Amino acid sequence: MHATIEGVTERLRERSQTSRQAYLERCARTRDDQPPKQRLSCGNIAHGYAACSDEEKQRIAGLHAANIGIISAYNDILSAHQPLATYPGQIKQIALELGSTAQVASGVPAMCDGVTQGQPGMDLSLFSRDVVALSTAVGLSHNLFDGVICLGICDKIVPGMLIGALQFGHLPVAFLGSGPMASGLPNKEKAEVRQQYAQGKVDDAQLLAVESASYHSPGTCTFYGTANSNQVLMEVLGLQLPGSSFLHPDDPLRPALSRQTIRALIDSSQNTDDRSIAAVVTEASLVNAVVALLATGGSTNHTLHLVAIARAAGIQLTWKDMDELSSVVPLLARIYPNGSADINDFQAAGGMAFLIRELRSGGLLNEDVTNILGADLEPYACVPSAVEDDEVVWTEPVTRSTREDVLTPLARPFAEEGGLRMLSGNLGDCVIKVSSVAVEHCVITAKCRIFHSQGALCEAFEAGELDCDVIVVVRFQGPGANGMPELHKMTPYLGTLQDKGFKVALVTDGRMSGASGKVPAAVHLTPEAIHGGPISLLRDGDEVELDAINGCLQANVSATEWASRVPAEIPVAEDTLGRNLFDIFRRNASGAMLGASIFEKKESL
């Protein structure tokens, strides 16, 4: 074991001892006092299986066969979720063939950030995670289920399902994805056309044609944003079968992997070895998840989601833990926006199996973990290759990358450190993704320009007001202000300024897309502006220093001047597209360092 991995894991255990023990005791109490189905009355059971077949009723009423609860995030707005339409029927049939049953426990909302980017609906995006968690808990509260299978892939949906499922820590839980769409127009070309559109060089029709060539069919978007980061994390956590994350939706192995997942849940519910989600999601496995995120240059959104997931399991994961791990975890993958390749190239190069093998060889993963198979990490260094007697066969460990420009061995990393860092200073604390930022852009000192919306920044760009070295500050974008939307709409404008030769960076209490790119972006700044955070004291023309090498974010304003300032006036936001219903979330959300969650107290602000 690498000393830093071991040290962070042990300190995390020590820090979490009280809260983790309370969580495990609650799980044990639920298991003992409310065992699935056994405390239900005859009337309860009759309601629960009224629409089932006679065979299913006999099995559920007998209390001996496992009944699997399905939590589905199906809709056909999300290309990644469209294939899930047929999964419940398949799962039910497989369960019957294996002597058990399955029922759809609940559907959960599934929001497409691609549709809402730059739109008012994006203000609901982050909080949709907590709605998904609540919806998952509502479905499982029927207490009819011996195991849980979650059908979800994209941004807030997987974290939300996991947070909800962790409230039922006595049950085994597995995730089933659908895989990425085939590669379309290269992401680099799409980004270039977006910048041309921002400059007025292409029109709507040309841009739509390019976007449609990128996002063109069922399956996950192929860039390495939050959705594909989710798949990496679920596999490394042990909640998803080895090698299953990035197979195409129509891959012939998918039905067999579904069968293997259901079999694993049934076996777990009937065996004495503990494969419950409480046993799978531990301090050690969460450190492994952070390591995998860093090694692949994954989404900054997971600095929020992983903290919230950990706390749902009684574990006190922090940004400082992530920053310390980043100092020793090398960058092993180059996937857009960290490179020109997409997730299909990553899969073809050796994918998760090669990544996990390399991380294990360097002692960068905790080995004292379990998974839904009840095994160690060894199967996760292999790939599913065939089906024999309805069982998936995994190959020997993948020992070579076929494309070292996409996935490189530990001996020849793309960078010695991981993709995420924490910045601190008199403006507060925040995170930055540096895996796709050139070294020469990692340090910038410039006068700042203040905005309270993406639209205002776009207007300033079009007026030529930003043609200079500038640190763009976009504030009142935190969870308490407007729900912390992704600020992806600004990316082409900032990228264009950088391409013109200007030194440019973003500082915000909001979020960027999971596909944060070449412009240094200090995001999730906390305390946020609406709660009087120092970002609310900045004024146009203040000199700001962003140093991603040494972890500093500083306003170079005299102490006397700084002390004399009052927070900026809070802008009035529109209550449109359902936003007013989420006021209770905005008023009760924790700060970004605690996951921007309504399930945490606000002492963190």
Which properties best describe this structure?
605 residues; alpha/beta; 2 domains; 8-stranded mixed beta sheet
Strand order of the largest sheet: 7-8-12-11-10-9-13-14
What percent of the residues sit in helical stretches (DSSP H or I)? 25-40%
The secondary-structure class comes to: alpha/beta
Strand-residue proportion? 5-15%
Q: Tell me the total number of β-strands.
A: 14
Uncertain stretches: none
Give the number of helices: 23
Q: How many strands, which pairing sense, and closed or not: the largest β-sheet?
A: 8 strands, mixed
Radius of gyration: 24 Å
Count of discrete domains:
2
3D architecture notes:
- The chain folds into two domains: about 5-180 and about 215-395, no CATH class; about 420-575, Glucose Oxidase, domain 1, CATH 3.50.30.80.
- The relative contact order is 0.11.
- The chain has helices spanning about 5-15, 15-35, 40-50, 55-60, 85-95, 115, 125-140, 155-165, 185-200, 205-215, 225-235, 255-270, 275-280, 285-295, 300-310, 320-325, 345-350, 350-360, 455-460, 480, 490-500, 560-565, 585-590, and strands spanning about 65-70, 100-105, 145-150, 175, 385-390, 390-395, 420-425, 430-435, 445-450, 470-475, 505-510, 520-525, 545, 550-555.
- Helix 11 packs across helix 14 (about 285-295).
- Strand 13 (about 545) and strand 14 form a beta hairpin.
- The model has no long low-confidence stretch (mean pLDDT about 95).
- By secondary structure, the chain is an alpha/beta fold.
- The strands form three sheets. It has an eight-stranded mixed sheet with strand order 7-8-12-11-10-9-13-14.
